[in-house]
Amino acid sequence: MEKKVTPKFFYLSAFNIIPAIILGGGLNGDSLALICALCVFVLNHLLLVKLVGTLTSRSANAGPAKILMLFFAKMTLMGAVIGGIYFYNQDLVVKVMVLMIFQLIIQVLSIKNNY
């Protein structure tokens, strides 16, 4: 079983820029911060797929060091986004959480299992 990131995920994530602009209040710095957070969420999902692929892989290169590195990178990205938005503008943290929920819905809609 191999998990893949489909083009559908990228199209739906690009569509998610519209709520980011609306939540940011138009084309301004807040919207740019939300769009950057959205880009990090996409990268975070790519790391998740790679982590799951590494965990399910039976090859010799799927050692615990690689798994821990991917997990650490994934958690560091999420912490960096929330911390960066918090120090930029505390009022945007709730809006980032809303975008995160939208992105999770997109992830569920774009899952493709190849058996």
> What proportion of the residues form beta strands (DSSP E)?
under 5%
Largest sheet, spatial ordering of strands: 1-2
Question: How do the SSEs run, as a string of H and E?
Answer: EHHHHHE
The protein's oligomeric status is single chain
Give the overall shape.
flat
Please identify the structural class as seen in this structure: mainly alpha
| Fraction of helical residues | over 70%
Total E-strand runs: 2
Task: From the structure above, extract its key features.
115 residues; mainly alpha; two-stranded antiparallel ribbon
Structure description:
- The structure is a single chain.
- With 115 residues, this protein is mainly alpha-helical.
- 77% of the residues lie in helices and 3% in strands.
- A two-stranded antiparallel sheet has the order 1-2.
- Helix 2 (17-24) runs antiparallel to helix 3 and helix 3 (29-56) packs antiparallel against helix 4.
- It is flat and about 50 Å long.
- The termini are close together.
Kindly summarize this structure in a few lines.
The protein has five helices and two strands, in the order βαααααβ. The chain has 115 residues and is mainly alpha-helical.
Write the layout of secondary structure elements.
Layout: E1 2-3, H1 7-15, H2 17-24, H3 29-56, H4 64-88, H5 92-109, E2 113-114
Antiparallel strand pairs: 1-2
Helix pairs in contact: 2-3, 3-4, 3-5
